[in-house]
Amino acid sequence: EGTSTGINGTVPGPLVRLREGDEVALNVTNALMDTEHASIHWHGILVPFRMDGVPGVNFNGIQPGETYEYAYRVKQAGTYWYHSHSFLQEQSGTYGPLIIDPKDREPFSYDREYVLVLSDWVFQDPETIFRNINLVGHYYNFQRRTVWEFFRDVSERGLKQTTADRVAWGKMRMSPVDLLDVTGAVYTYLMNGRSPAMNWTALFDPGETIRLRVINASAMTNFDVRIPGLNLTVVQADGKNVRPVEVHEFRIGVAETYDVLVRPREDKPFTIFAESLDRSGYARGTLAPEPGLEAAVPALRPRPVRTLEDIGMGMMDDKIFGGGMDHGGMEHQKHTMKHDPDLPGPNKPQPFKPEKGNSNVAMVINNPKIRLDEPGIGLGEDGWRVLTYQDLVSVEPQIYQEQAEREMTINITANMERYMFSFDGKKFTEHPGPYLFKHNERLRLFLVNHTMMEHPIHLHGMWMQLENGANALPFKHTILVKPGEYLSVLITPIEKGDWAFHCHLLYHMEAGMFQVVRVA
Fold first, then answer.
1. Contact 320, 328 (CB under 8 A)
2. pLDDT higher than threshold 90 for residue 44
3. Residue 99 and residue 118: Cα distance in Å, rounded?
4. What letter does residue 430 receive in the DSSP assignment?
5. Which tens digits make up the pLDDT trace of 67-84?
6. pLDDT surpasses 90 at 494
7. HEC per residue, 166-196
8. Which end of the chain is less enclosed by CB atoms within 10 A, N or C?
9. Are residues 234 and 213 in contact, defined by beta-carbon separation less than 8 angstroms?
10. CA distance linking residue 443 with residue 435, whole number of Å
11. Would you give the distance in Å from CA 233 to the centre of its chain?
């Protein structure tokens, strides 16, 4: 048996439903008598900074027996969620869905809706899991490479290439099959708090349009979601409306949300299948015309294996981050940026040079690539259409100017062997101070991933508009940055105060990939 930190006695917590434009007051009481503090962060919600719920950053946390009143005006609509920002409580069940109904009509219609909260449940104490992966980064990865795979690679690629590949991975102290730190070996993947065997079910009448609000409330698991036999029309990303995109599958990073429409015409059940990125397990539910039915559950696909090219370490030309600073002909490089020498942190895209002997940084990728048109490792080979970030085009009012006034770069860095995760080679405790954003400036932020893992990067308190080439840039609160990738976002910091900026993989955040952004 395991212990959960639920909300009002349930995991996930109750659905909180608000209305755009409302003034709300939400009272949260900490009934955990054996903990230092509790908290609730309203993920993706624009609030005054004292209402953001991050202990040590914008309030002191809710002490045992105390009640804290979160009061704010709801300025947005869409699918969001809430969770604890205290210790590892989120892993043990402190999360729930948050839906905000719009004051105006939405640009799509549907007959009924369901909220799908995906999560990863573990019967072990989260502190034990964190201790284990700190001791050995691949503690829960039982899908290691075998000698037979070596012989197969030799026959396919030759001895020299295979050996060089193995030596490169060895130098980085990494394995190409380390896709997720905590796996289905210990996790049970849940849909709305139900295990695959419990078969959570949503009912429909044939011919109806069903809206599924999919929330990835996991601590550590990126999921690939599909409903065999049905097309999915993506209409919202991170709570913001996008131009409808028809796909068969989408990857949802930890803390992202996607709203999709499905139109089951046949009088039969369909399996909602959410496969973990490393293929070690799945969450599932059923869309059914009546209770008690189920459809076939797909077999798990083979575990993907990263290549050196996948993480930007292959024999690529040195265009992107070489001495010439050629950003692959990205349009915005035509303007000259003004750089503020008084603001700490790099003020323009530039090669990352960690301090000598910095054990937080296992590798620096000299040739990061723009990968927004790639679905991600293990996807796109099945003959069906997979969502990419390139597909997202906003249909929200574009209220901010396109031109950036300033640029800065944040490097995503790690040393998996030591289980250290950081920004710019420094863990949270080592940063000299917060990153400084200016109130109401238009900032272009480059994110460069120098690691071999996907990191869902979340910025509190403001939107990031992903520069994906769309004529209307999509709004995101969380961006899954691929290994060896660089991308840029435009930000207008609208609320003064201190805001968290972190990787949303819970144990990566705890291991140092967290920073404070100060808007002043």
1. yes
2. yes
3. 15
4. G
5. 999 999 999 999 999 999
6. yes
7. HHHHHHCCCCCCCCCCCCCCCCEEEECCECH
8. N
9. no
10. 12
11. 20
Q: Which two tokens stand for residue 149?
A: 């795979």
Residue pair 415/426 in contact (Cβ under 8 Å)? The answer is: no
Q: Which of 296, 283, 122 is nearest to 192 (CA)?
A: 283
User: In this structure, what DSSP letter does residue 482 have?
Assistant: P
Quick one: DSSP state of residue 161? Answer: H
Q: Looking up tokens 């990728």, which residue turns up?
A: 365
| Complete edge-to-edge strand list for the sheet that includes strand 464-466 | 420-423, 406-415, 443-449, 486-491, 464-466, 475-476
385-427 pLDDT, tens per residue? 999 999 999 999 888 877 899 999 999 999 988 899 999 999 9
pLDDT over 70 for what percent of the chain? Answer: 87
Q: What is the maximum span of the chain, computed from C-alpha positions, in angstroms?
A: 66
Cα separation values, 265 from 210, 229, 269, 289, 507, Å: 11, 10, 11, 10, 42
Output Rg (C-alpha) for the chain, integer angstroms: 22
- What's the CA gap between 251 and 342, in Å, rounded? 40
Q: Enter the tokens of residue 250.
A: 């989408």
Contact call for residues 456 and 479 (beta carbons, < 8 A)? yes
For 315-339, the DSSP string reads S--STTTSTT---TT-GGGGSPPP-
Cα–Cα distance measured from residue 368 to residue 166, given in angstroms and rounded to the nearest whole number: 21
Contact partners, residue 337, CB within 8 Å, separation at least 6? 347, 348, 404, 405, 406, 407, 444
pLDDT digits (tens, 9 = 90+) for 206-243: 999 999 999 999 999 999 999 999 999 999 999 999 99
Element (H, E) at 135: helix 126-135
What tokens does 497 get? Answer: 């105060």
Three-class secondary structure of residue 241 per DSSP: strand
Using one digit for the tens of pLDDT, what is the confidence trace for 115-140? 999 999 999 999 999 999 998 877 78
Distance of CA 332 to the CA centre of its chain: 26
108/24 Cα distance (integer angstroms) = 27
CB-based contacts of 392, cutoff 8 Å, min separation 6: 237, 242, 245, 466, 468, 470, 474
Tokens found for residue 313: 């370490």
Per the listing, tokens 């755009």 go with 20
Q: Give the pLDDT confidence of 341-393 residue by residue, as tens digits.
A: 555 444 555 678 888 888 899 888 888 899 999 999 999 999 999 999 999 99
Q: What is the DSSP string of 390-425?
A: GG--B-S---S-SS-SEEEEEEEEEEGGGTEEEETT
Q: What is the pTM of this model?
A: 0.90
Instruction: Determine the Cα–Cα distance for residues 119 and 428; give it in Å rounded to an integer.
Output: 26
Residue 204, pLDDT above cutoff 90: yes
Q: Is 196 helix (H, G, I), strand (E, B) or coil?
A: helix
3-state class percentages of the chain: helix first, strand second, coil last, to nearest 5:
10, 35, 55
